[in-house]
């Protein structure tokens, strides 16, 4: 079943047109209409929104819904509780003005000046400057305004309700699309079509914008510098939720490489892991090479793919045969799993770099390179 507009602009009637239930929401009725006519709810909803947007979270138009159902528009507006947007009452004017933080020093100075010149009580000062009694008392106590209290972030009930579902959608999509993430519209449509979740497009957009996989600035948090450690600037803790995403994807790669376009060899697996690392701004494998060096006991001048081959059963083998290639792939996944376990520990990355720093100080060549010139001579 498909819908469309005739050449003269009239909308076509749906073949099956169930009655709206009294007090039913518009999204619920649109879902029932779509399922009855074998349409995706997101498609029918976008069709009812009409051009130029055709969806993107906009409200379905009452006239278009009436046209496709063959019902009177006023009857639909009475039956569906939210088909017509209700006008919000005008907010009452505040009883006192809101003072910006930057304007408070001048306000405090004016209050203190009035007290010195006119000896006015607190109640008169509050009315004159349109502030609370507490603000007047603060000004009389000190000319410096106290800092504003930081309010905790407001999390709406809709975000709490759909957050876990969106996370599950992202996990599934990343697993089946080589670490890529869906667009906001794709997530919103999946919620509507597959989960029967009614949520605004803006809520999904805000949740996705603040998600660690969507916002690279949220992927890392800088640890406190360690005195005397030249690698302290690199001590960053990868977000726990991001580790979960990548570990899930790497597990899927290990089990079914062909499903992700890989042939299961070390070359393609290494290229895929390098791509994931690049996609995380090189934070996913931060510390991996140092961790491998300490484990191997040598190879500070080698890249991690070469170190993995040295740590595979039988050591370095070149060229790789099919058995040694398979063993190297197994070793890579095992080492990544153990490295991620170490990274997820409290101050995990800091411990990795400290271990590497300790290993460096035991190397004779390192002590020679870092010695003072007079010590060398």
Brief characterization of the structure:
The chain is an all-alpha fold.
Low-pLDDT stretches: 215-238
Assembly level:
single chain
Main beta sheet: 2 strands, antiparallel
Secondary structure category: mainly alpha
User: Which strands sit side by side, in order, in the main sheet?
Assistant: 1-2
Could you give the distance between the termini?
88 Å
N to C succession of SSEs: HHHHHHHHHHEEHHHHHHHH
Average pLDDT: 78
How many distinct helices?
A: 18
Overall geometric form: flat
Domain module tally = 4
Please provide a written account of the structure.
It is a single chain. Helix content is 53%, strand content 2%. With 377 residues, the chain is mainly α. It has a two-stranded antiparallel ribbon. The termini are far apart. Mean pLDDT is 78; it is low at 215-238.
Which structural traits does this protein have?
single chain; mainly alpha; two-stranded antiparallel sheet; 18 helices; 2% strand
Question: How are the elements arranged and paired?
Answer:
Blueprint: H1 26-36, H2 41-49, H3 62-69, H4 73-79, H5 104-118, H6 122-129, H7 133-141, H8 157-176, H9 184-194, H10 201-209, E1 220-222, E2 236-238, H11 240-255, H12 266-279, H13 288-296, H14 304-311, H15 322-343, H16 348-361, H17 364-370, H18 373-376
Antiparallel strand pairs: 1-2
């Amino acid at each position: 079943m498909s819908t469309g507009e005739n050449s003269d602009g009239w909308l076509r009637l749906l073949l099956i047109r169930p009655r709206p239930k009294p007090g039913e929401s518009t999204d619920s009725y649109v879902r029932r209409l779509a399922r009855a006519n074998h349409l995706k709810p997101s498609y029918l909803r976008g069709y009812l929104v009409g051009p130029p947007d055709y969806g993107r979270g906009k409200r379905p138009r009452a006239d278009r819904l009436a046209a496709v159902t063959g019902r009177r528009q006023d009857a639909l507006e009475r039956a569906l509780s939210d088909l017509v947007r209700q006008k919000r009452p005008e907010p009452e004017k505040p009883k006192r003005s809101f003072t910006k933080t930057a304007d408070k020093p001048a306000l405090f100075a004016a209050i203190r000046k009035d007290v010195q010149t006119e000896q006015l009580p607190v109640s008169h000062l509050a009315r004159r400057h349109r502030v609370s009694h507490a603000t007047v008392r603060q000004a009389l106590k000190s000319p410096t305004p106290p800092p504003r209290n930081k309010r905790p972030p407001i999390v709406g009930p809709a975000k709490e309700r759909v957050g876990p579902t969106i996370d599950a959608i992202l996990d599934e999509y990343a697993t089946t699309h080589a670490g890529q993430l869906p667009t906001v519209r794709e997530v919103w449509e999946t919620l509507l079509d597959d989960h029967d979740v009614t949520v605004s497009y803006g809520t999904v957009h805000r949740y996705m914008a603040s998600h660690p996989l969507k916002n690279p600035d949220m992927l890392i948090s800088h640890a406190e510098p360690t005195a005397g450690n030249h690698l302290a600037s690199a001590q960053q803790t990868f977000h726990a939720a991001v580790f979960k995403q990548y570990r899930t994807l790497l597990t899927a790669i290990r089990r079914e490489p062909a499903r992700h376009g890989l042939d299961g060899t070390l070359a393609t697996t290494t290229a895929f892991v390098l791509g994931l690392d690049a996609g995380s701004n090189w934070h996913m494998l931060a510390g991996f090479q140092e961790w491998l060096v300490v484990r191997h006991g040598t190879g500070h001048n080698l890249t991690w793919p070469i170190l993995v081959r040295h740590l595979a059963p039988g050591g370095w083998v070149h060229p790789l045969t099919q058995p040694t290639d398979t063993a190297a792939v197994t070793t890579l996944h095992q080492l990544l799993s153990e490295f991620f376990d170490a990274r997820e520990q409290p101050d995990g990355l800091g411990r990795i770099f400290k271990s590497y720093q300790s290993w460096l100080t035991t190397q004779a060549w390192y002590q020679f390179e870092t010695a003072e010139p007079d010590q060398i001579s």
